[in-house]
Specification:
about 230 residues; alpha+beta; Jelly Rolls; Arc Repressor Mutant, subunit A; 2 domains; 4-stranded antiparallel beta sheet; disordered N terminus
């Protein structure tokens, strides 16, 4: 493990925080020894500014990524230029690994939502490694299964919950208390929250207006809840 740490500190130039985020990802937690060393050898690290394109739909899918810091927005465009958010990736999230066995072209756009640090994994190198190392193949399957389950949950939530309920659930999942007043701070702009919840910005605004009757107020990125218990009844 010491050799692995030296490799990550020296060659990859990861900060201690980025290293901790990376090693807790489901994609790497099950790896050790030579498998982990070989996986890290297929990785490079990059820092990108806000609103920087990482890849575009139709580009050659030569890498997948792990967010170490910041946020990344995944989205699609139609012919008229209308955007549809697919996912907001936070630190510890991986994206585009579905392309390991899902075609040679990216199927959506990826753009930084603020300044980010990314771990970039060479697609072909990991594909080759998965054919040679059983634990790497298992890690790939676990990652893909996790994304599939999350996608199914997202579809179900969109169909079962109204816009105010989606917003309420987002707030409740981040409240520090089970009852009484509470406050949370959004980690990103409300426009990104709208996309994450599958809402248009104006629909998000209407949802917040509906939630005012339960004591929810919004000031910038700070959301205050008058009574967490009342919000659970939405």
């Amino acid at each position: 493990m010491e050799a692995i740490t030296d490799m990550m500190n020296g060659n990859l130039k990861l900060s201690s925080r980025d290293r901790a985020v990376l090693m807790k990802t489901p994609f790497l937690t099950g790896l050790s020894g030579s498998s982990l060393v070989r996986m890290l050898s297929a990785m490079s690290v990059a820092s990108l500014p806000n609103r920087k394109s990482i890849f575009r739909e139709g580009d050659n899918a030569d890498a997948f990524y792990c967010v170490l810091s910041g946020y990344v927005r995944l989205y699609r465009l139609n012919r008229e230029g209308r955007e549809a958010d697919i996912r907001i990736c936070a630190p510890g999230d991986t994206f585009a690994e579905c392309q390991l066995y899902g075609g040679t072209k990216y199927r959506y756009h990826a753009q930084t939502a603020e300044a980010v640090t990314l771990a970039k994994f060479d697609m072909q190198a990991v594909r080759d490694l998965a054919e040679q190392e059983k634990d790497v193949a298992k890690a790939v399957m676990m990652s893909l299964s996790s994304h599939l389950q999350a996608s199914m949950d997202c579809i179900a939530n969109d169909r079962l919950h109204t816009a105010p309920q989606r917003v309420a659930n987002y707030i409740l999942n981040r409240c520090p208390v089970d009852g009484g007043p509470a406050a949370i701070r959004l980690p990103f702009q409300k426009s990104l929250l709208a996309g994450q919840l599958g809402l248009a910005p104006e629909a998000l605004s209407r949802a917040f207006s509906t939630l005012r009757k339960t004591g929810v107020t919004v000031r910038g990125r700070v959301i205050q809840v008058g009574d967490v218990g009342a919000l659970r009844e939405i």
